[in-house]
Amino acid sequence: MIVLAVPDARLRESYLAAHDEFVAAGEGHRDGDGLWVEEADEGFAGVAFTRDELETPEGFARFAAHRRGQADEDHPRPTGHVPCTFRWVVDDADPATYLGSLAVRHRLTPFLLDQGGHVGYSVRPSARRRGVATAALRAALPLCAGLGIDPVLVTCDEDNEGSRRTIVASGGVLEDVRTGKERYWVPAGDPTDAPAALR
Q1: Which residues have a Cβ under 8 Å from the Cβ of 106 and sit 6 or more positions away?
Q2: Pair 61, 69: CB distance under 8 Å
Q3: Could you tell me which residue ranges the N-acetyltransferase domain spans (predicted)?
């Protein structure tokens, strides 16, 4: 069964192997989790992780802690960015293998309202076409409800048939298309249905 795991240093080797798959497929930047450098601005000192650093257990632990911290309202972030809960997608039968990631943005900026939505997700190329994205999005809905997000805005590119099917299978209803992005509203459901690990 697909589950959403809190970012954890134990997934280092699998995460980095998946990152290499994404890069080979031309998808190095995905749902925010492929970004290892966030530039400094007026109120943010910036953060940067190198591949060499992430290869070390200590460096990757710092990275995983940063991902976890991004859910906190007072965690440093670039101007205009909102708190974001990251979860890494795993199969509970093989929890040491990173299958992808999912990001829940706690509120919408004008850009997120038009383009990005509340939830972004990605599945590593070797794990696609197995229902992983649909299961991950469905697992995220109680988390969204627990954050007071209902309904949930999820978007996809007009030409991304796989993502469209994932959203519709999760109950998404198309509102419109803006600048090449299909915008769907998905009911989040009852927050008490969320597993304790996600609350």
Answers
A1: 71, 82, 83, 84, 85, 147, 149
A2: no
A3: 86-171
Domains of the chain and any CATH numbers = 2-198 (3.40.630.30)
Give yes or no for a contact between 103 and 81, defined as CB atoms under 8 angstroms apart. Answer: no
- Is 125:20 a contact under the CB 8 Å cutoff? no
Q: Which two tokens stand for residue 137?
A: 């999005």
Predicted local confidence at residue 73, as pLDDT: 96
Show the tokens assigned to 71: 């859910």
Q: Is 66 exposed, middle or buried (0-12, 13-18, 19+ CB in 10 A)?
A: middle
Neighbours of 51 (CB within 10 A): 11
d(CA 140, CA 133): 10
Question: How far apart (Å, rounded) are the C-alpha atoms in residues 33 and 88?
Answer: 9
Please give the torsion angle defined by the CA atoms of residues 28, 31, 33 and 37, in that order, rounded to the nearest 10 degrees.
Answer: 70
Residues of the chain above pLDDT 90, percent: 81
- Distance, in Å, from the CA atom of 79 to the CA atom of 91, rounded to the nearest integer, reads 35
Is beta strand 100-105 parallel, antiparallel or unpaired with respect to 152-157? unpaired
Reported as a single tens digit per residue, the pLDDT across 49-104 is 999 999 999 999 999 999 999 999 999 999 889 999 999 999 999 999 999 999 99
Residues of the chain predicted below pLDDT 70: 31-32, 190-199
